[in-house]
Amino acid sequence: MMNIFPIQFVSGGQVIRGLGYGPHLGSPEAIRAILIHGYSSSKHALDPVATALAKAGYPVLSIDLPGHKLGSSGGALISFAMVVQAALDANSQLPSPCRPVYIGHSMGSAAALVAASRDPRAVGAASLGLGYPVTVMRPDPAVINYYLERWAWVDGASPIEVGLAMDHDIPEALTQLKGRPFLLVSGTFDQELPPFSAQKLFDMAHEPKTHKTVESDHSGVPLKAAPLVVEWLNQIRDSQNA
């Protein structure tokens, strides 16, 4: 059982909407998960992770970014920086003793990493479907065409523009996150961010770090990753309570 409730806040002058998830009975865990979806996607892509965490007792806030789903969320995707800020502002909207963990998929996985690196209260970050560089497949004409199709679903910055910004921010974020847990979950059949790019990202990361692989393409990673995220977060919780 869990409680699910709408949340709305302002970040960068735009309205951000999302859903909060919480355990139905008992006291929630002292770690709150902030979930960020990928480019041209929506919070629904991370529903398996949100529900798994809530059922495990963790409060969750999963946001819908502006400019997605042909404007159904309103606003526009100004830049990758606004995604990071929306994640940071999401946590600040819910004052409580909870410390945040930032979790994302694809574009949101990079935003989760960067947000955690900039939030001194963050316990860590989990990136589902991320590699380095994010634009690793850009020279492939088929990939460029696919990117252009996805841009048609988003009001705002192009996937190439966003990808280049992620490539710029990821190395520093990995350095700043040093000493806090980092989870990377990659798909064995991911054609957007292939296994070799995930391994390069993991090699760049600092301890404590964990790399798990799932039998999935890029879009299917969150579903397969949900139990792994819960297991990883439980280990963090237990180490803090020890």
UniProtKB/TrEMBL annotation:
Domain (AB hydrolase-1): residue spans on this chain? 34-125
Q: Which GO terms describe its molecular function?
A: aminopeptidase activity
Q: Does the keyword Transmembrane apply?
A: no
Repeat listed as a keyword = no
Keyword set, alphabetical order = Aminopeptidase, Hydrolase, Protease
Q: Which Pfam families match?
A: Abhydrolase_1 (PF00561)
List the InterPro entries hit by this protein, alphabetically.
AB_hydrolase_1, AB_hydrolase_fold
Indicate what this protein is called per its UniProt record.
Serine aminopeptidase, S33
